[in-house]
Design the sequence.
């Protein structure tokens, strides 16, 4: 990565919040008493969690524990589900994201997302990455757009593999490349936070290793929240780990401490493989 | 390795129960394969039956239609005497168009048969030539008035009965009382044939003219244009309305009593008999809004109402089948709901929507009943030039001709069916082409 890359992505488009790069220990996302309901069923109970800027926070826990639900409430993706209801407070840089005055489109430009299954649009590689900047009107000039696309692909470690075939369909790439394309697509909007919902679960170990490496590099510029089923992955990529169980946030701490000396015995049980 | 051993040995030295279940499986297998073969045979039989029926339909229609594509003509040498056409020599259009061309033709024709003298015979003789011959001469003279006074050879259609006789549809050996052609006329026709004046040519009239009471002058073009204008109105009204309602219902509408009622009613509308839509069109478009009768615009609106539910249902299922991952990806990037739909969902659903549209349009193209209610069954000679001109449509034309007593309309009915089928095939090919363009293979 070259040092000027950060400049070519317009950082100020994501709102008037200060650039968080230098504030290493600042709390980026703050969740207070978050409860999520699907119709009558409550999926999350009073979750309190601070997510620090420029760190990777991993959310672990057995299936159905609410970790994905929590992740999706961080950029209000749950809004697309009719019966879903969120209570409590989630704030991004101190601003409540469920506030009436918050535009969800704007929020998602600041909090990007990468999904479990690689889901590139059925368009060319270039158009995939350029889609976000285009809809948000980040640039009007083609050369600038090309710059953004190149930077995003470079950040996603995909540039060298695709630079000669940017007009080829994004769906023609391999699974791992597709997922990195999706990361590039999210990065191109230059969000402040990137949410990743089990980004490696559909990938083979080599592609997984590449993505993990990438996550570590992205931490420099972005705040990352990752949901994962693999405890090794959580241990490898994240600085903080939060353990969810049956809709409750059981424990959250530095990753190292969580995996060596967890406080709660449920955490202990889960990470040693006794359940989950 | 030691762990794996018992598992590998399991089936080999298994208990009695294992072997029994193996026997049961292999016995069952035979039955299962037999069932599969039977099912395949049923399927092939069904397809063969359908194809056979289709082939039968096509061969009957096409073989019946073939004679309609030719017409018996007579090459008559006519002297255009100035005293008959334009005695004053003014060459005014009014005079030229109202001149007595009938007399000119009659004279030329009688000259061929000097032996026919009685009034009755002469009338029967002249009946052999189509009444349309008059217009042929008139158009020729009006286009080129210098022909007056000249001797010209004109090719003009013979009457439908002689045409049928020539094509063998009226048999010469049947008793005279049972056919529409007199023995004398047959003899005269044979004399004309011997002199080499009779010619069978391709029937261009059929493809260029509107309807007529005289089969040899009747054409399908008027009805085809009527169908074209009606279909255009139907497509322009139903497609945007249906796609808009499908998108709203599928993507935006909340699930509540209202939308559920609407949904149920859309499904009901798809099953409403088409004649009811005709009554609705009569009451609303013609009686209430005072729109013109027999006009493609009203027919198009009625058929649009009829096709709406079909397209809505197809469009909704096409929208529903767009993978949610694409929507999530777009939402995740901060696309607004409308952007998600217009940029991603709609393009991916387009092939399905087009398929539904074509099914609906094909239905509408073949529809007769509702159009009868709004007056598109009228006898209309002129070819319509717009959606507001009185017109009829192909299926109604078929219905009208099938109802006509003249023998020559039988073959024209079949020919009209061929034209309708050709219309359908063209529409379907267009649809396949469009679908291919919208379909993304990646």
Sequence:
């Amino acid at each position: 990565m070259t040092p000027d890359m950060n400049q070519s992505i317009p950082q100020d488009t994501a709102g008037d919040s200060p650039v968080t790069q230098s504030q290493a220990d600042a709390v980026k996302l703050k969740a207070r008493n978050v409860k999520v309901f699907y119709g009558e069923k409550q999926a999350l109970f009073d979750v309190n969690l601070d997510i620090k800027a420029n760190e990777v926070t991993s959310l672990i826990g057995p299936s159905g524990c609410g970790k994905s639900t929590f992740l999706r409430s961080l950029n209000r993706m749950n809004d697309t589900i009719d019966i879903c209801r969120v209570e409590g407070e989630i704030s991004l840089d101190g601003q409540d994201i469920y506030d009436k005055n918050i535009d969800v489109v704007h929020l998602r430009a600041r909090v990007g997302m990468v999904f479990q299954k690689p889901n590139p649009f059925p368009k060319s590689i270039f158009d995939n990455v350029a889609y976000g900047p285009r809809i948000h009107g980040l640039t009007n000039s083609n050369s600038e757009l090309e710059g953004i696309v190149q930077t995003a692909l470079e950040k996603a470690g995909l540039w060298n593999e695709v630079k000669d075939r940017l007009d080829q369909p994004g769906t023609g790439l391999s699974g791992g490349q597709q997922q990195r394309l999706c990361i590039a697509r999210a990065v191109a909007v230059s969000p402040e936070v990137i949410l990743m919902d089990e980004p490696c679960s559909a990938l083979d170990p080599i592609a997984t290793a590449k993505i993990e490496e990438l996550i570590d590099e992205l931490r420099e510029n972005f705040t990352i929240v990752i949901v994962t089923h693999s405890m090794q992955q959580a241990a490898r990529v994240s600085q903080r780990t939060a353990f969810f169980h049956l809709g409750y946030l059981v424990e959250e701490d530095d990753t190292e401490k969580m995996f060596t000396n967890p406080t709660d015995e449920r955490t202990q049980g889960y990470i040693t493989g006794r359940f989950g | 390795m030691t762990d794996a051993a018992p598992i590998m040995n399991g089936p080999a030295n298994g208990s009695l129960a294992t072997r029994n279940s193996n026997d049961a499986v292999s016995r069952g297998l035979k039955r299962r394969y037999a069932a599969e073969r039977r099912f395949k045979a049923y399927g092939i039989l069904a397809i063969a039956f359908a194809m056979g029926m289709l082939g039968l339909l096509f061969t009957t229609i096409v073989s019946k239609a073939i004679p309609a594509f030719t017409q018996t003509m007579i090459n008559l040498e006519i002297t255009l005497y100035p005293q008959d056409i334009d005695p004053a020599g003014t060459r005014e259009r009014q005079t030229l168009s109202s001149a007595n061309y009938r007399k000119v033709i009659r004279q030329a024709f009688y000259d061929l048969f000097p032996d026919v003298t009685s009034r009755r015979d002469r009338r029967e003789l002249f009946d052999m030539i189509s009444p349309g011959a008059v217009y042929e001469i008139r158009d020729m003279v009006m286009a080129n008035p210098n022909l007056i006074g000249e001797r010209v050879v004109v090719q003009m259609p013979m009457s439908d009965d002689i045409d049928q006789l020539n094509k063998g549809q009226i048999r010469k050996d049947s008793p005279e009382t049972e056919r529409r052609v007199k023995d004398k006329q047959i003899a005269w026709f044979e004399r004309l044939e011997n002199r080499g004046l009779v010619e069978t040519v391709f029937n261009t009239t059929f493809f260029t003219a509107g309807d007529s009471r005289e089969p040899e002058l009747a054409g399908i073009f008027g009805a085809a244009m009527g169908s074209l204008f009606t279909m255009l109105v139907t497509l322009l009204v139903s497609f945007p309305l249906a796609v808009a309602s499908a998108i709203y219902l599928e993507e935006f509408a909340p699930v509540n009593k209202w939308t559920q009622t609407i949904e149920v009613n859309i499904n009901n509308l798809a099953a409403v008999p088409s004649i009811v839509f005709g009554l609705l069109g009569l009451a609303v478009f013609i009686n209430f809004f005072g729109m013109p009768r027999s006009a493609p615009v009203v027919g198009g609106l009625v058929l649009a109402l009829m096709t709406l539910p079909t397209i809505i249902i197809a469009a909704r299922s096409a929208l529903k089948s767009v993978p949610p991952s694409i929507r999530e990806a777009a939402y995740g990037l901060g696309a607004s709901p409308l952007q998600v739909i217009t940029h991603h969902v709609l393009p991916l659903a387009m092939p399905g929507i087009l398929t539904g549209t074509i099914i609906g349009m094909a239905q509408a193209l073949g529809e007769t009943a509702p159009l009868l209610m709004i007056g598109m069954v009228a006898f209309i000679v002129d070819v319509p030039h717009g959606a507001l001109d009185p017109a009829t449509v192909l299926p109604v034309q078929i219905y009208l001709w099938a109802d006509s007593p003249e023998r020559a309309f039988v073959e024209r009915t079949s020919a009209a069916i061929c034209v309708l089928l050709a219309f359908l095939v063209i529409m379907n090919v267009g649809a396949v082409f469009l679908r291919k363009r919208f379909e993304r293979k990646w």
Residues 221-438 of chain B form a domain with the MetI-like fold fold (CATH 1.10.3720.10). The longest strand of chain B covers residues 70-79. The interface with chain A takes residues 254-255, 323, 325-336, 339, 343-344, 348, 440, 442 of chain B (CB under 8 Å). The mean pLDDT of chain B is 88.
